[in-house]
Write a structure and sequence with these properties.
117 residues; mainly alpha
Length: 117
């Protein structure tokens, strides 16, 4: 597999230029003093090397997924309520046979409110 080095180099160069101008502006300590080009070039070099090493490490750690992982229907695609997933047991509770949560049947707390009026 052939990869290009142009992307990581441009990424590192961008951050180096940004670090150069940031250090040049902030290291001088104001407009009355001379700009510190020595610190600006040092900061740019450090930023270039660090971002280039990080980009190289990330590109070396890249690995394609196995082909079998992209096939199949997936897991838990349905959001329907299942009795075994916290929405009740296999048998209905006493006094509420046949009624579903959220139904508008008379006598259910959902339809009449909490007091049953």
């Amino acid at each position: 597999m052939r990869t290009s080095v142009k992307g990581p180099l441009m990424f590192s160069a961008f951050w180096a230029v940004l670090a150069f101008f940031a250090v040049l502006i902030f290291a001088s300590g104001g407009s009355s003093r001379a700009p510190r080009f020595d610190l600006a070039f040092t900061g740019a070099g450090i930023a270039f090397i660090v971002t280039l090493v990080i980009a190289a490490m990330l590109s070396m750690s890249y690995k394609d997924n196995a082909e079998h992982l992209g096939k199949g229907s997936g897991v838990n695609l349905s959001s329907a309520r299942k009795p075994s997933h916290g929405f009740g047991g296999t048998a209905p509770r006493a006094g509420r046979e046949g009624s579903q949560p959220g139904s508008d049947e008379p006598g259910t707390p959902d339809a009449d409110g909490p007091t049953g009026r």
